[in-house]
What we know:
With 630 residues, the protein is of the alpha/beta class. The chain folds into 3 domains: 5-152, no CATH class; 162-277, 3-Layer(aba) Sandwich (Rossmann fold); 292-593, NAD(P)-binding Rossmann-like Domain (Rossmann fold, 3-Layer(aba) Sandwich), CATH 3.40.50. It contains 21 helices and 24 strands. The longest helix is centred in the N-terminal third of the chain and has 32 residues, at 119-150. It is elongated, with a radius of gyration of 35 Å. It starts with 18 loop residues before the first helix and ends in an 8-residue tail after the last helix.
Amino acid sequence: MTFNPSSWKKRPWAPLLTRQVRFLLDILILGGAFYLAYQLRFEFNLSENQRAFFFCQLPLVILIQFGALYVSGAHSFIWRYTGLQDMRVFWKAGIASAFILLILRFALPDSLSDWRIPISIIFISSLLGSGGTLGLRILRRHLYENYEKNHIGGILISQKRIPALLVGAGQAGVLAVREIHRRPEMELDIKGFVDDDPRKKRQTIHGVEVLGPTKDLPYLVNKFGIDQVIITIARGSRTELRRIVKICEEISVKVRIIPGLYEILQGKVQVSQIRDVEIEDLLGREPVHLEEEVVNRFVAGKKVMVTGAGGSIGSELCRQILKFKPASLLLVERAEFVLFEIDRELCQKWPKVSIVPLVADIGDKERMGSLFTHYGPQVLFHAAAHKHVPMMELNCSEAIKNNTLATWSLAQTAGKFGLEVFVLISTDKAVNPTSVMGASKRLAELVIQNMNGHFQTKYIAVRFGNVLGSSGSVIPIFREQIKKGGPVTVTHPDMVRYFMTIPEASQLVLQAGAMGEGGEIFVLDMGEPVRIIDLAREMVALSGLKPYEDIDIIMTGLRPGEKLFEELQSSAESLTKTRHPKILIGPIKPYTEQEVHTALEKLAELSINGRLSELRSYLNQILPEARLTI
């Protein structure tokens, strides 16, 4: 932007358009329309007698037509915001005034024949009058938008704008181009739309032409000197997004994206919040379709507790739960700061729901018992856990204490207090575990399976893989490394992982909890696995940099407890379909109650005494599928 002192003032026409001036302009338009109607009727050759009739009838016509405009509400509009939706008001006013003039035309006596307006002139003047007054407002809007396009608060916007193409000429594209035209500070010069619908080619939307399909992007970028390609597809598939991004990467043009249409229509974001394409846009999958009636019966009007409420999954679970209007939501978290943050966020968004932040350690049986006594939860989502694999290899006794023994304690307390449902958040690392973290979660699953049937509480576990952007996961680490200029570190070129978005995982946990009859291990459909090296390359490319040239990608070797690939089921498990296409049931070989109790007591002894080598050896013993290094 450049500062222009002479433009630091009100818009030049603003002081002129007072209410009285607007009335006067309408009167002039209506009078001019009536005169033009007379001229057209008599082929621009008015006699003296016809001129006399015109001047006699003019006040009556203006009075009726102006009154019709006023009564219809045309004068209540702010002129600079007049749009197509306002047209009907002016046409109604024109029709009403024409109807009144026609009645007078046939009702007036012969003594007032001078006031009888020819029928053709009535129709012509009504049409020209309503069209002219509407056109005056559209002209005012054009002047306003043209001024705003080049000025913000009196500051002259630099005429040098960024040439851009919009990909997608649908509803989202229409919203985007309208917003861009209205927001000059975005400094975008839209050269055209790109859309694969052949019917839209050469059509114009808000003055912007559809230039061709996406395959022509290289040619169009070169022809118009494009600096940015902005994806304005409302519900594009991830495959489609990846294809467009790949084209843009090959021709070295910056690619950006607008927020999702649903978010825009819900008022959560604005079209103008154009942002860079992020890896979540390419890896995330299609929206989850919940059985809302089932979930509503599961949650609505009930007291719901979420442990680990400040974590990535726990906090998103809270957001999803609140959409179904629980009687109260109990946030259990031992990290004070994250509890403060999520409590503040939720209370601002859902002020009418009772949200209670509770600082507590789930392994503290007395504290949890007192919370159950005081607040009486009915449904519990257990998301609290230690989840960082290499860190838990160094602190294996803490992994067992928090992920296994605390889950056992919490599950017993939930049963004694008669909770309806207890939902454990598990992980794909529990399958054929090679880490203490995975083994601890596998044991937690066994605890849940063993507890079911001992109380009226239904115990359920939900197992899924990595979630995009969760704290401590690979994507935030890559972002930080790219921001610092690299290198980006990958442990092994063949490492693959499953990914889903945090909202998707949380919604499916809710769905699984609502479907569960007790004792199930639900497995979420994670889609196709992603190679971590490919993920690193794409994130570097999306940052506008070239992998191995601008930022290096290096291999660091597998860390303790890590696998090359994660599994969602063991070879001994066969997944069973449920009525929801993204939720499966993975049966787990049952352990006897005595086996589970003996194992838990032994694990408690080993972890409390810090006998780490024995602890790892015992995990391999009680979990035959485990492959922990000693």
